[in-house]
Structures are given as C-alpha cells and as structure tokens.
Amino acid sequence: MNITFVGGGNMASALIGGLLQQDYPGAQIHVVEINAENREKIKHQFGVTTGTELRAGIIDRDVIILAVKPQQLFTVAKQLAPLLAGQLVISIAAGIRTSDLSRWLGSYDYIVRAMPNTPSLIRAGVTGLYALPTVINQQKENATSILNAVGLVLWVEQEALLDAVTAISGSGPAYVFYFMEAMLQVGVELGLSIEQARQLTLQTFLGAVQLAGQSEEDVGILRSRVTSKGGTTEQALLKMEQEDIKNAIVRAVHVAFKRAQQMGDELGSL
Ligand SMILES: NC(=O)C1=CN([C@@H]2O[C@H](COP(=O)(O)OP(=O)(O)OC[C@H]3O[C@@H](n4cnc5c(N)ncnc54)[C@H](O)[C@@H]3O)[C@@H](O)[C@H]2O)C=CC1
Ligand SMILES: O=C(O)[C@@H]1CCC=N1
Prior knowledge:
Layout: E1 3-6, H1 10-21, E2 29-32, H2 36-46, E3 49-51, H3 54-58, E4 63-66, H4 70-80, E5 88-91, H5 98-104, E6 111-115, E7 125-131, H6 137-148, E8 151-155, H7 161-170, H8 172-189, H9 194-214, H10 219-226, H11 232-242, H12 245-268
Parallel strand pairs: 1-2, 1-4, 2-3, 4-5, 5-6, 7-8
Antiparallel strand pairs: 6-7
Helix pairs in contact: 7-12, 8-9
The structure holds 1,4-dihydronicotinamide adenine dinucleotide (NAI) and (2S)-3,4-dihydro-2H-pyrrole-2-carboxylic acid (A1CAB).
C-alpha cells in the first residue's frame, strides 16, 4: 500500500517511525507538509519523500492519512475533495466526525476515523477505529493492517466512543508522563541523581504495567498487595485520598472527553 500523510507533525512522525520499525517500505510513504522545518525534520529522520503539493501527493496513492490539527482539517479537506478517486482516507483528528469530514470531502464514502497515540513510534501504540458504513471490507482490513503495525487496534461500533478513546488512550500517555514527572521530581528532592530517579521511575511503571497485564486480578487487588498495614504506601495513598487525587483524575479525563465532543460540535458546524 502507498500511504500519503497530510501533515507531518508529532503524530504522523510517531506513526511513520513505527511503520518503518516494522519494516514497512519507506519508499511507499510520502508526506505532504507545508511547514519547511517540519518537512526537513521528517525527511531527515525517516528518509521518506516529502512535498508541499497536495495534488502530487494524492494521485496514485492507496491510503491518505489526514494528520493535521482538527482546526486545519476543514481547509485541507476542501482542497483534497476534487483530488480523491476512491482512496481510503484515514483521519486521526480528535473530535472531527466522519459525517462532517465526508461532507467537506463532497459526500465521500471511504473514510475511517482513527485515534492512535504516540507510543506508536515504538510500536507500542493503541488505536481506536471507526468506519463509515460505506467503507468496503478490504479498506477496513487495510486500516487495521496499517495501525496494527504500530500497536493494538480496537474497532468501535459507535463513533461517539472514539471521543472516549481519545480521552483514555489518545491523551493517556500525557497523563502517565505527568505522573512520572512528579515521581522524578520527588526522587531528586530526596537526593537521588536524575538518572537514578529516572531508572527507578521508568522500571516501576514498566513493572507495574507488566504485572497488571499478566495478572488475573484487578488492579485494586494488586494495589492492596503493595500497601502494608501501618507502612509507607498506606500513608502515601491516604494523602492521595485526602487530596482527592483519584477523583481529580476522573474529572480531568471527563474534561478531555467533553473537549473532544466540543471540538466535534464546533468544527463540525463549518
Ligand atoms: N499528538 C498526539 O498524541 C495525537 C494527535 N492526534 C491528532 O493528530 C493530529 C495531528 O496532531 P499533532 O501531530 O500532534 O499536531 P502537529 O501540529 O504536530 O502536526 C500537524 C502538522 O500539520 C501540518 N499542516 C498544517 N496544515 C497543513 C496543510 N494544509 N497541509 C499539510 N500539512 C499541514 C503542520 O505544519 C504540522 O506539522 C491532530 O488532529 C490530533 O488531534 C491523534 C492522536 C494522538
Ligand atoms: O490533545 C489532543 O487534542 C490530541 C488528541 C489526543 C492526543 N492529542
């Protein structure tokens, strides 16, 4: 499959990096990017062809991945509409609904909406997918195989669920890095070198994730096993409860979900 990315920023880079690691032929990837600096970066980093011309990047391609910001998608779609000839269009824009994108593309039928995440760069991503009912099976399989190359793939039957995927796994890596930042800060405050704090923090996340993944028990039970009566963890968790940390996280993730819906409403009215 020949793939063209329109937009060569953070998420396109993560997907391209993951595809190349999976031995996807770089010669089959092209990037249309209007920003000269980003274009050079992607060319240098991955050795794929790049350009500014939408028309040249679209003709004879099998799959077009729209990787511009949601706010930039309307303009790109309007330019793209007359150039399409049955290619599969995959949009990774947060919030933007397939019905709106289809309208912008002149009632286009072959659209898959995807919500990947940045660990795709190391093929440890997870992507939620939804297809317009008019997308043919072969195209769905193509979307699955592209995103599967960079991690797990999960199809949802109702498009609205993609906003939940966005709030959980699309934005999720940032929540995890935020927690890591706090742990690193404390490690250094307590006298560890930054490198020591980094090793301890990263291995703790890795170990906890692997343990949860391999265990039959739910994460609450695993947490209780760390929490000795009268010990250190109990004190830390008590403090977190007093500070309402879990509810704050729950509220924050709901806000991410609402923002995805809001972007869909606002931008979809264009
Ligand atoms: N960053 C993330 O973790 C994730 C992002 N997304 C979605 O991916 C999309 C891109 O996000 P990022 O990569 O973070 O943004 P970004 O700002 O890093 O990348 C967007 C790129 O598109 C380029 N661009 C803008 N207009 C263009 C045009 N007309 N033609 C060609 N290129 C154009 C920009 O110069 C920029 O390099 C967004 O819609 C976002 O919702 C989805 C999942 C995760
Ligand atoms: O923050 C955003 O809007 C995008 C979507 C999920 C991750 N980044």
